Amino acid sequence: MVITTIICAFLTLSYLLLVMLYMKGWKLQQEFRVPPGYEPHTFISVIVPARNERDNIGACIDGILAQKYPAGLMEVIVVDDHSEDNTAEIVSEYHDERVRCIRLADYIQPGLKVNAFKKAALTAGIKESRGSLIVTTDADCIAPNLWLLNMAGLYELRNPAMIVAPVIFSGSLGILNKFQLIDFMGMQGITAATHSMKLGNMSNGANLAFSKAIFNEVNGYEGVEHLASGDDYLLMMKIARVPAARIAYLKSPNAIVTTLPQPDWASFLQQRIRWASKSGKYDDKRLTAILMLVYLFNVAIVGLGIAGFANHWYWLVAGSMLLLKTITEYIFMIPVAAFFRKQWTQVYFPILQPLHVLYIVLAGFLGIVGNYKWKDRKVK
Question: What superfamily would CATH give domain 31-166+207-261?
Fold first, then answer.
């Protein structure tokens, strides 16, 4: 019992120090502001992979076309990934020379087995693009009208090879939506913090940009195209290995892309398993160590909760760990929630903490040993 308590105390102290580093990292990550009178000159190609997105693709394209960005310096390429609905037809109805729809099937050799359809779709879209800056988003995302202006501003003024930008979930009704929103917002805060503190690189393909030159220099997804997930992170790691190639984080309220939460618990778990499945592919020792610490800390809380039925002391230890976790994370989330204008979520944050612990343990385990289903495809 003594040894177990000591181990748990060490895990708790390490975890609290990690969250404190995140607090510092978030504070150090300065907000980017486009200079007054700024005029961009970069041609941007927005690539949107889409599969069975008839309910979302219209709003996504409308948001891109509404950008306060020179019309002659942008294009939208939707890559139809074998949709079984009328996604492609909806895109084709846009009588705007800036909007194009291409079929992924036209870029796949007959008989070729494809495991990473999104990577293939992005590759096809980039191949057909004219822009020097590639911006990727998802078909269920909506961007604010200053999105591309901020992307171009950071790209032109600071010359990064890749830009990671914020994403947030829409909606607030129901416990599931609240849980997803809080969890994802926390991940976004950590993403910004890790970049400023050099704790490893994180990203999200729903709001990502990189130069076409660097994509070609690292040969795109070559070498990782067999992995179903990780189009954002795995490309980032390839770029990070290029000398002098900088990866920047765009911390700006005007660059926050909004996406849809999962509609039910089963879909939510499948999404998180897909995300967790990338964990075994990380070659960043810093990030691997952090993920291991976070996972072991949460496993310890669950394990102690079970062991408490044999010895009530373990319930006291587990409760203490959960309380310290909640307080520290709550403080971290205060400025993050304010940035995303979701301060109201702090009311639900403590209540949902036990569920958060269980979800991390379950999704992490299934992400390593299990399969998942995504976009009506089963993936191993």
Answer: Spore Coat Polysaccharide Biosynthesis Protein SpsA; Chain A (3.90.550.10)
